[in-house]
């Protein structure tokens, strides 16, 4: 199969390109590089020992998308999009234009080229304020911020498309909290600015980029009082996309599938495991709860196992060890 990967130079996109190449797929990737580095593509080529064609291209470039898709692809894996929650609150129109209009442009180019297989990088954020875990795919959806709203809008676009037109095979992969890095330490997460997510902040603290990890709330109804989340190793996540690609023709229309571990780890558990991996105590400070944060969220991954034959294999210790290996070797990310 010939596969087009959007957002190919990003954290999850680059790891997925590597796993696709290792599995024997022909891969073409593009990214506008607004929040990533082409260095990741160079390293994927080195790690795989295989060619990976890459173009700098934006989802808002309709002509460019049409030109590229007309070359002929069996499937598209769509990661490209803006993803910072805080920024989405400040710039909701930017997020709508890039994430929603951009995806509409991609789908239009796919239709024109006759490509009807799509795997979309969705998120557990579409579940809104979760009251009870584990969360399965039937949980009501809602948006608690503009970023989540764009994921909902794209999912709804895909559901509507599949209802209106026969022949589409669309997998909406709702994943939880990606962490870790490739075991080589050569590719990993390189967030621009201050990280929004826990693990990169913890690891950046370990290399001295922050004074301490801020723990938002210690009085939740959880075993140690801190928030509990479902973390998934980025390699497991990439292999989940590979599994969805191998089963994509079993998706009649559009269907959502959770990609998660099916269990949660608390903030303090993550900090402790990261400290063990780094061989040093990572400092943290307890801060007041943030509004809107849930006490505990983790996935019900049963459908992924049934439909895709996929389940996570890597636990918290391996997630932290691999993430630390990447961070230690690349303290300033790809800019080092």
Concise account of the structure shown:
With 336 residues, the protein is of the alpha/beta class.
Structural features, described:
The chain is of the alpha/beta class. It has a domain of 211 residues: NAD(P)-binding Rossmann-like Domain (Rossmann fold, 3-Layer(aba) Sandwich), CATH 3.40.50. It contains 11 helices and 14 strands. The chain has a 7-stranded parallel beta sheet with strand order 3-2-1-4-5-6-11, with helices on both faces. Strands 12-9-14 form a 3-stranded mixed beta sheet. It has a two-stranded parallel sheet with strand order 7-10. α1 runs parallel beside α2 and α9 packs across α11. The longest helix is centred in the N-terminal third of the chain and has 22 residues. The model has no long low-confidence stretch (mean pLDDT 97).
Instruction: Determine the CATH topology of one domain.
Output: Rossmann fold
CATH superfamily of one domain: NAD(P)-binding Rossmann-like Domain
Shape verdict: globular
Mean pLDDT across all residues, rounded? 97
- Radius of gyration based on Cα positions: 19 Å
Classified by CATH, the class of one domain is: Alpha Beta
Ranges where pLDDT stays below 50 over 5 or more residues in a row are none
Strand order of the largest sheet: 3-2-1-4-5-6-11
Number of strands: 14
Strand content: 15-25%
Subunit arrangement of the protein: single chain
Order of helices and strands: EHEHEHEHHEHEEHEEEHEEHEEHH
**Which structural class do you get from the secondary structure elements?**
alpha/beta
Strand count, sense and closure of the main sheet?
A: 7 strands, parallel
